């Protein structure tokens, strides 16, 4: 990967989601190739969302202690803190651009960290925000589909 990349919550959740094996493999490859380069960036929002998404009732991907262990590893990356200036910049972005406040916080954190790529599946692939380009790391990843009549899933 060239340049600095900001990881959105959904990419990190895919690291632990066994219900999405193709996405999990993509996320694991991305993590193993890039986590030690110093080019991956997160925000405090992403850390909090990861904990919530992986431990909430009904989903329970991880026990709280296991989710905390992942957070300890993620916290070794550069983490952009959420502060009043970031929130105000995100609010201004929502007035100029039709995106949610939560997405605007992600965009502003990535811009604050001088990232050139935002890795997420939650925004339009290829979209640009002031030089920050949205990339869906799962684009083209095919999920297994069950065969007609049952049986094991097949990758097409």
Describe the structure.
The protein is of the alpha/beta class and 156 residues long. It has one domain: Rossmann fold (3-Layer(aba) Sandwich). Helices cover 45% and strands 15% of the residues. The protein has 6 helices and 8 strands; from the N terminus they run βααβααβααβββββ. It has helices spanning 9-16, 21-34, 44-55, 64-74, 84-96, 101-112, and strands at residues 5-7, 40-43, 78-80, 117-119, 128-129, 132-135, 145-146, 153-154. The longest helix is centred in the first third of the chain and has 14 residues, at 21-34. The two termini are 27 Å apart. The relative contact order is 0.18.
Helix/strand layout:
Blueprint: E1 5-7, H1 9-16, H2 21-34, E2 40-43, H3 44-55, H4 64-74, E3 78-80, H5 84-96, H6 101-112, E4 117-119, E5 128-129, E6 132-135, E7 145-146, E8 153-154
Parallel strand pairs: 1-2, 1-4, 2-3, 4-6
Antiparallel strand pairs: 5-6, 7-8
Task: Describe the structure concisely for a colleague.
By secondary structure, the chain is an alpha/beta fold.
CATH class descriptor name: Alpha Beta
Quick one: how many beta strands?
A: 8
Compressed to H and E, one letter per element, the order equals EHHEHHEHHEEEEE
Main β-sheet, in a few words? 6 strands, mixed
Structural class given helices, strands, pairing? alpha/beta
Shape, principal axes of CA atoms: globular
The residue fraction in helices comes out at: 40-55%
Low-pLDDT residue intervals, each spanning 5 or more residues: 145-156
Computed over alpha carbons, the radius of gyration is 16 Å
The neighbouring-strand order within the major sheet is: 3-2-1-4-6-5
Distance between the termini: 27 Å
Oligomer: single chain
Number of helices: 6
How many domains make up the coordinates?
1
Instruction: Indicate the CATH topology.
Output: Rossmann fold
Give average pLDDT, whole number: 88
Strand percent estimate:
5-15%
**CATH-derived architecture:** 3-Layer(aba) Sandwich
CATH superfamily: 5'-nuclease
